[in-house]
């Protein structure tokens, strides 16, 4: 089989894709047993049908990441090549209506596997690791496959206190800016018609955390985003809403707690006291799992190093 894919036009992106002295291309040739030839802004891939499909999968993931500013180190590329050997039915790919979403790091793979196999998952890690995006993708996939009947996507609004009264507009206009990341993810995974239908019929509900009180969420996929900004009481309130056949993913970054009055984080508290319960899994993503612009990884590392210095102890 023979196929070709379009290469980036930027010389810098091409150098990153090929690697030093074409090291990345050599690895792909060796590990996936294909012939690769770059010509006229195209990458020609030749081999057996299965090997070519795997190589296309890996190369397209690399190109997508590189055009967003992420470079692949040798160990990261090894993980990606290993994922390329998997079939689309494996844990490495999430199927939504509009696109197939492939995990890009081993940590993300562990996270998606946990979501698919546990009723309650805590996804903890820095910005850019895909905590919210992958959780929404898994929720859409579960809805498509009939495993749940409803998606409930929530997060604390305005630094956990949910004090919305000073903002202009009605409740929807007050809340929407804080739920925008969830809407953005849904826009990528569902057609406009389908998303509109689901929201109008209540199949997908996006609401601030305060609206969950008193609910029983039966056969629902619940995502609590930015959970570092919940109090233990708010966290307990949400987790005790889960009804039969419900699933819940709780995401957050413990380095970005905005709670006032020295309140403890409900995310830290819950992930600690519930760690030993059956059907509960905590996945801790790290800087290695950041898939945004490569600068984000450097920024996170710089802040981590700064916070670890003795003179900064107690500041954060």
Describe this structure in words.
By secondary structure, the protein is of the alpha/beta class. Helices cover 44% and strands 17% of the residues. It has helices at residues 11-18, 23-32, 49-67, 74-84, 106-117, 131-144, 158-162, 171-189, 192-201, 232-239, 266-273, 294-307; strands at 2-6, 35-39, 42-46, 93-95, 100-102, 120-124, 150-155, 204-208, 220-224, 247-252, 280-284. It has a 6-stranded parallel β-sheet. It has a 3-stranded antiparallel β-sheet with strand order 1-3-2, covered by helices on one side. Strand 2 and strand 3 (42-46) form a beta hairpin. The longest helix is centred in the first third of the chain and has 19 residues, at 49-67. The protein is globular. 36% of the residues are buried.
Strand order of the largest sheet: 8-7-9-10-6-11
* Secondary-structure content class: alpha/beta
**How would you describe the shape?**
globular
- Distance N terminus to C terminus? 56 Å
Low-confidence stretches: 158-162, 312-316
- DSSP strand count: 11
Question: What portion of residues is helical?
Answer: 40-55%
Topology:
Layout: E1 2-6, H1 11-18, H2 23-32, E2 35-39, E3 42-46, H3 49-67, H4 74-84, E4 93-95, E5 100-102, H5 106-117, E6 120-124, H6 131-144, E7 150-155, H7 158-162, H8 171-189, H9 192-201, E8 204-208, E9 220-224, H10 232-239, E10 247-252, H11 266-273, E11 280-284, H12 294-307
Parallel strand pairs: 6-10, 6-11, 7-8, 7-9, 9-10
Antiparallel strand pairs: 1-3, 2-3, 4-5
Helix pairs in contact: 2-4, 3-4, 5-6, 6-8, 10-11
């Amino acid at each position: 089989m023979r196929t070709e894919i379009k290469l980036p036009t930027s010389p810098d992106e091409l150098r990153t894709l090929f690697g030093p002295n074409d090291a990345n291309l050599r690895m792909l040739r060796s590990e996936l047993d294909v012939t690769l030839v770059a010509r006229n802004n195209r990458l020609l891939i030749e081999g057996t049908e299965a090997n070519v499909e795997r190589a296309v999968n890996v190369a397209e993931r690399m190109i997508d990441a590189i055009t967003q500013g992420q470079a692949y180190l040798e160990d990261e590329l090894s993980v990606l090549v290993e994922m390329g050997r998997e079939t689309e039915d494996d844990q490495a790919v999430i199927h939504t209506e509009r696109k197939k979403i492939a995990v890009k790091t081993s940590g993300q793979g562990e996270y998606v596997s946990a979501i698919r196999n546990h009723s309650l998952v805590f996804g903890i890690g820095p910005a850019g690791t895909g905590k919210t995006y992958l959780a929404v993708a898994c929720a859409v996939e579960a809805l498509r496959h009939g495993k749940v009947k409803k998606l409930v996507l929530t997060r604390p609004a305005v630094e956990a206190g949910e004090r919305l009264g000073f903002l202009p507009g009605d409740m929807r206009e007050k809340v929407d800016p804080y739920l925008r990341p969830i809407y953005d993810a849904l826009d990528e995974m569902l057609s406009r018609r389908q998303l509109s239908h689901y929201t109008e019929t209540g199949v997908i509900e996006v609401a601030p955390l305060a609206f969950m009180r008193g609910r029983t969420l039966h056969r629902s996929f619940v995502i609590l985003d930015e959970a570092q900004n919940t109090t233990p009481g708010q966290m307990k309130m949400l987790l005790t809403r889960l009804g039969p056949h419900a699933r819940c993913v709780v995401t957050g970054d413990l380095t970005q707690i905005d709670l006032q009055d020295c309140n403890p984080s409900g995310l830290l508290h819950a992930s600690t006291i519930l760690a030993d319960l059956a059907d509960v899994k905590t996945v801790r993503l790290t800087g290695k799992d950041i898939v945004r612009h490569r600068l984000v990884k450097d920024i996170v590392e710089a802040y981590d190093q700064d916070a670890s210095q003795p003179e900064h102890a107690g500041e954060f």
